[in-house]
Amino acid sequence: MNAATQIIQLQGPSGLLEGLCDLPEGGAFRGTVVVAHPHPLFGGTMQNKVVQTLAKAFVQNGWRATRFNFRGVGESEGAYDEGRGEVDDLMCVINATCETQQPMALAGFSFGAYVTSQVLARLSPSHKLEKLVLVGAAASRFQMASVPSDLHDKTLVVHGEVDDTVPLASVLDWARPQSLPVTVIPGVEHFFHGQLPLLRSLISRHLRT
């Protein structure tokens, strides 16, 4: 945690949710991204290295990044709800931290990408979603929602070629009916070991387009 990171607490649907808010250098920001972490029952938290990489990429490009622990993780109250309550948690954090009519972005890793996909249909028209980043999307384990066609140009989907947690084939099966492009990193597994700088670079490139 750096000097520009703030500890936050939000009232969630099943109790308090703990979170961290990362600010760009100087404190000014162009919009807010909310980052969702991997599976709560398999060690997923807001401190996950991929989640931190997502937040860092956005912060380095002038965004405020909010990451938080889903219900039952760390100091967040409640209990794991198989993705249902976690969608409510994410929606709560969005409403609490993303100002209407201000640019916003969503990003998720693994289970967090699944939860993020489910939230898309629930966003208010007043939420100006500018960017969407889905990394290691858990398409083989959960029913990923489709990305609305008007968001395709704003979306980056990244997956490792040799991901043995979520096989690449399952992500392609999800993306194919949508004609949604998937960026594949050769030789990389689920947690992007040794390739986090490359992941950050791909996200930064997406944010600058």
Would you write up a description of this structure?
By secondary structure, the protein is an alpha/beta fold. Helix content is 27%, strand content 24%. It has helices at residues 49-60, 84-97, 111-119, 168-175, 196-208; strands at residues 5-12, 15-22, 32-36, 64-68, 103-109, 128-135, 155-160, 183-185. α1 packs parallel to α5 (196-208). The radius of gyration is 16 Å and the shape is globular. The chain starts with a strand and ends with a helix. The mean pLDDT is 96.
Named CATH architecture:
3-Layer(aba) Sandwich
Large-scale geometry: globular
Low-confidence segments, given as residue ranges, are none
Widest sheet: strand ordering:
1-2-4-3-5-6-7-8
Q: Report the count of strand segments.
A: 8
- Cα separation of the termini: 28 Å
What is the C-level CATH assignment? Alpha Beta
Strand content: 15-25%
Radius of gyration over alpha carbons? 16 Å
Could you state the CATH homologous superfamily?
Alpha/Beta hydrolase fold, catalytic domain
What is the gist of this entry?
Helices cover 27% and strands 24% of the residues. By secondary structure, it is of the alpha/beta class. It has one domain (5-208): Rossmann fold, CATH 3.40.50.
SSE diagram, text form:
Layout: E1 5-12, E2 15-22, E3 32-36, H1 49-60, E4 64-68, H2 84-97, E5 103-109, H3 111-119, E6 128-135, E7 155-160, H4 168-175, E8 183-185, H5 196-208
Helix pairs in contact: 1-5, 2-3
